[in-house]
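Lecture notes, continued. The same structure-token format from the folding unit now serves as the input rather than the output. Read the line below as a description of shape only.
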């Protein structure tokens, strides 16, 4: 693995049931940055994240994370995964949730107070999670992912359903985390969040259609905003796919036996 990459994926093939999700994708995720994984719902973002943290069965290819095979036991305390939606116990307080998960890791007990401060929930520590707003529950879930000071944090749509103020607060926290040396992979289908990332992986139908930076995305497409830039890339990608399909049909027709051929 290259020293500047937290994740390196080569030739990844994944099927889920009868559906082919990935057919040989390659990508790298830089260390110490926020990499945004963006694309419409159903494009494969969650499956890719599951493959990185080692909970997705793969058919072929290699996933290397922090120099180790994805899912290796040696990564258990180095990689954190925040699933889509708050994975917390509603009948426990915020602090009780964090204490419980800290014991499972295990993480130092004083990590709980550190994480409460980082996610801005110190004042709510004694409240039942079930009484919190959706945004606060998401922050509890994020706090659980931060226990034990992981090197790589993988977050599946952590800002979904949040109002603009809460989304901005979370992105401020994400930036602070990378400034401390943590690598973040954050998925979203909200295209304006692309501008908050250092690196962008744009997905469509199980393929990486762009591996770029926010500035590079806008410059390449000539668009003024990331949503229009993504639509431009989709149109280009569809055009290339149509051209490739026409080329394959032409080759088959050219090589088909004609009348009188043996």
């Amino acid at each position: 693995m290259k020293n500047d990459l937290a994740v390196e994926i080569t030739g990844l093939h994944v099927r889920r049931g009868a559906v082919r999700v990935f057919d040989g994708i390659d990508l790298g995720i830089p260390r110490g940055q926020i990499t945004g994984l963006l694309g419409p719902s159903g494009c494969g973002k969650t499956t890719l994240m599951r493959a990185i943290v080692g909970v997705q069965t793969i058919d072929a290819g290699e996933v290397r994370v922090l120099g180790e095979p994805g899912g290796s036991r040696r990564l258990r305390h180095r990689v954190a995964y925040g699933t889509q939606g708050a994975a917390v116990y509603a009948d426990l307080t915020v602090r009780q949730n964090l204490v419980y998960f800290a014991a499972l890791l295990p993480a130092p007990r004083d990590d709980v107070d550190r994480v409460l401060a980082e996610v801005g929930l110190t004042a709510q520590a004694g409240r039942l999670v079930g009484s919190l707003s959706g945004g606060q529950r998401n922050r509890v879930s994020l706090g659980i992912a931060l226990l034990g000071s992981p090197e790589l944090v993988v977050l599946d749509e952590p800002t979904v359903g949040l109002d603009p103020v809460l989304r901005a607060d979370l992105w401020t926290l994400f930036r602070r985390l990378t400034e401390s040396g943590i690598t973040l992979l954050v998925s979203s289908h909200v295209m304006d969040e692309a501008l908050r990332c250092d690196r962008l992986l744009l997905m469509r139908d199980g393929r990486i259609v762009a591996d770029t930076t926010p500035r590079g995305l806008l410059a390449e497409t000539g668009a003024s905003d990331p949503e229009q830039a993504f639509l431009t890339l989709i149109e280009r990608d569809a055009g290339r796919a149509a051209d490739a399909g026409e080329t394959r049909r032409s080759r088959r027709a050219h090589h088909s036996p004609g009348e009188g051929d043996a």
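Point for the exam: The longest strand covers residues 5-16.
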